[in-house]
Design a protein that fits this description.
Elements (H helix, E strand, L loop, with lengths): L2 H14 L1 H15 L20 H10 L8 H12 L19 H7 L14 H18 L7 H11 L1 H7 L6 H17 L12 H10 L21 H10 L9 H4 L16 E4 L11 E7 L2 E4 L8 E4 L5 E5 L3 H6 L5
Helix pairs in contact: 2-10, 3-4, 3-6, 4-9, 6-7, 7-8, 7-9, 10-11
Amino acid sequence: MTVRRAWIVATAAAAAGVGFVMLLVVGVYMVAGNLAGGVGQGAVALAKGAVPAAYQTVVQKWGNLCSAINPALLAAQLYQESGFNPNAKSPAKAEGIAQFIPGTWATHGIDGDGDGDRDVWDPNDAIPSAASYDCKLASYVKDAPGNQTENMLAAYNAGAYAVIKYGGVPPYRETQNYVKTITSLEKSFAAPVTRVDPSKQAAGAIYYAQKKLGTPYLWGGNGTSDQGGRFDCSGLTKAAYDAVGVTLPRVANDQYNAGPHPKREELLPGDLVFFSDDLTNSRAIRHVGIYVGGGYMIDAPKPGAVIRFDSIDTPDYFGATRVTEDGAKALPTTV
């Protein structure tokens, strides 16, 4: 289908209004009956580009250090802590890509790359140290009832004593939220082993975006009245999912982590599709649109253009995300 024909389809769809949405809902949920979702059992591989290429090998290796962790879980922790920034430093003096405080690093930092030193600022030391620390915590709480990974994460947040005392994840809201956050975010960094469930909110997000066709692009635009209702690419996708009760981060490279990542041939309407000049690193993503089927998306492409249909099959196509409520909620507000 050409872009010209896509515009004709868009016009017809707009005229159909609610009818278009109902057809989409029926189509999405017919497919849903035949799909299995989530991350399967067994060895866990990292999703394409989810971890920057410079760290992918070390995360994959050390993420298999013990049975309580896996590469995707380790990646989720690093993203949550620093956004894969090896120079990150928090107000609490946590340092590096894994955000160790000095006292914890002094006790648990290891020479991960065997070069003779332990450098908290070197990801080749800090990432192995994070994995090693996770596994030590898991060993401390190995006799506690419940899921060993959840108990390990709870020990990371609240201390091993609290997990032992309460016989599992303690009844602290902060700790329970931390466990849910990391286990939800884990799915965003794992390569799915089966097809993943379609988003329940997909039809509504597309309907919102289709109503914005023809709206002029605005860099930094969020669609507010003072901006003339204009959007940039991630402003449009955020607003579309906001309209159906799912809060996404503001920028495209964080939106990539809002759920699992279907393959190109598995795309469904409502998936977010991403584009980058570096196909090995999700942190370099620079553009996002909403997939509508047939190889096309609705997007706000660039200054001087309007919200329109565009083909997704370009050399800079990075990948896709099937947005989930839990995945979106798990994303840190700042990384």
